[in-house]
Amino acid sequence: MERYVIKGGNPLVGEVEIGGAKNAALGILAASIMTDETVTIENLPDVNDINVLLEAISGIGAKVERIDRHTARINGSTITNFSLDYEFMKKIRASYYFLGAMLGKYKRAEVPLPGGCNIGSRPIDQHIKGFKALGAEVNIEYGLISTQANRLTGTHLYFDVVSVGATINVMMAAALAEGTTIMENAAKEPHIVDVANFLNSMGANIKGAGTDVIRIKGVPRLHKTTYTVIPDQIEAGTFMFAAAATRGDVTVKNVIPKHLEATSSKLIEMGCQVEESDDAVRVYCKGNLQHTHLKTLPYPGFPTDMQPQISVALALANGTSIVTESIFENRFKYVDELSRMGANIKVEGNTAIITGVPRFSGAIVSSPDLRAGAALVIAGLAADGHTIVEDIVYIQRGYERFEEKLRGLGAEIDRVEDDKEITKFKFQHPVA
Ligand code: UD1
C-alpha cells in the first residue's frame, strides 16, 4: 500500500504548473465517442480517473491512442458494445457519462447503476428526469440502468437540484436530439462550459453554458475536432491553500484566475495576499491566518471539492471558523484524522466548528477520499515532525505527480511502497 511520508515545517515557496481539469476531461472523453470521426484531446491530466475512463472507452470498442502523457486520440466508429462493465463504474462514477453520450449517438445505452461513494449518497434522479424528458425510456433492473429511445426530441426541462453530472449528461444526449432543448436551473461550473465548448467544436449548437439556462439545438451528427481541456481549478486551489497553511509564497501557473475567485476571496479574508495575472495567481501569507466562515455551494460559490483543503488552513488560523457543507453529507470524514494531528474541530450535522490551533504535530493518518487526502497532505506539510498519509490511492485519482510538484516548492515528501521502505526515515518522534 503506497503512502506519503512528509516532514513538515517548510513554507512552500515557488511556482507550480497546473494540469488539465480532471472533471472537465471526464465529460469531454465520454463525449468524444459521439462522433465516428477522430477526436484529439490535449491537456488531459495523467491521473488514475482519466486512465480508467480511457480504458472504459476501449472497453466499449472505440479506438484509443495515447499520443503522449497528456494527449489522446479517440475514434468511436468501431463501438459495438453499448453496455459498460461494472468494473469501470466501481472505479469511477463519471462512467455514467456514457449514458448521455451513447443515448445521444446510438439511442441506447446501459451502465451499472452507480452506488453511493465515500463522500455521500449520490442519486442520479435528475439525469433520469432529463433523459425521460427527451423521450427516452429508462429502466433500472439487476443493478443496471438502461435507456433507449426510437428518437430523442427537444424539451423544456427544469432541474430540481443544481447538478453538474445531470447537466453534462443531459446536454450530451440533447446535442443529438431533434429540435431544441432548454435546460433551466443548470449547473454553471467551468467544466460545464468546457464540455459545451468541446461539443460545439464538434458541430453541436449549445448556447448559454455557464449560465443557469442552457439552450441546445439538436444536430444530426458531430464531427472531428482537436480540443484542449481547461486548467484544473481544484488542483490550483489545493496548492493555494497549501501555500496558506504553510505560510508560504506560491504562484500557480497556467490557470484561469476567474475560476478561482471563491478561493482567492477566502484567502484574502484569511489575511493572505493574492496577486492575479493573466494566467497565474500568486498567494503569499505572512503572519497568522485569520478565521472566516463559509458554506459550500454550486459554482460560483465556494466549491465542495475545496472544503477539506480550506478547513485544514482554518484549523491553523486565529479564532473560530464555521464551515457548512451543503452539497455532500459525508465530507467531514477527514476531521477525525486531522484531530489526531492536534486540530480542534467539532462536527455537528453538516457544519464543522473549527477553532484554530497554533500548530499541528505529525501522525499517521489515512485518506478517506480524494480531496480529503490532499487536505491531509497539506496538514502534514504544515505540521511539526513527520506525518504518514495512508491510502494515497485516492489522491492519485485526481492529482498528477502531486509529491513531485510539492517537492518543487520545497516540501519534504516521499512516496513509499511498503513498511520496509519506511524504516529508512529517521523519525525524531514516535509516529502513531
Ligand atoms: C461533480 C464533480 C464533483 C463535485 C460535484 C459538486 C465530476 C466528475 N464530479 O460531481 O467532484 O464534488 O460535482 O461540485 O465533475 N443530486 C441529486 N440528484 C441528481 C444529481 C445530483 O440529488 O440526479 C445532488 C447530489 O446528491 C449533490 C448535488 O446534487 O447533493 C450536487 O451533485 P452533482 O453536482 O451532480 O455532483 P456530481 O456531478 O456527481
Strand order of the largest sheet: 21-22-1-23
Q: Tell me, what is the CATH class of the largest domain?
A: Alpha Beta
- The tally of beta strands, per DSSP, is 23
**Ligand kinds:** uridine-diphosphate-N-acetylglucosamine
Number of domains: 2
Rg from Cα: 22 Å
**What is the CATH architecture annotation of the largest domain?**
Alpha-beta prism
Calculate the terminal CA-CA distance, rounded to whole Å.
Answer: 17 Å
Q: What is the overall number of helices?
A: 15
Commentary on this structure:
It is a single chain. It is built from 15 helices and 23 strands. It has helices at 22-31, 48-59, 86-91, 97-106, 125-133, 164-175, 190-201, 233-245, 261-269, 307-314, 334-339, 370-382, 393-396, 402-407, 419-422, and strands spanning 3-7, 13-17, 38-42, 63-68, 71-75, 108-112, 137-141, 144-148, 156-158, 180-184, 205-207, 213-217, 225-228, 249-253, 273-276, 280-284, 294-295, 320-324, 344-348, 351-355, 364-366, 386-390, 412-416. It has a four-stranded mixed sheet with strand order 21-22-1-23. The longest helix has 13 residues, at 233-245. The two termini are 17 Å apart. 53% of the residues are buried. The model has no long low-confidence stretch (mean pLDDT 95). The site of uridine-diphosphate-N-acetylglucosamine (UD1) has 20 residues, from helix 1, helix 5 and helix 6. Uridine-diphosphate-N-acetylglucosamine (UD1) binds at residues 23, 26, 94, 122-127, 161, 163-166, 187, 303-305, 327-328.
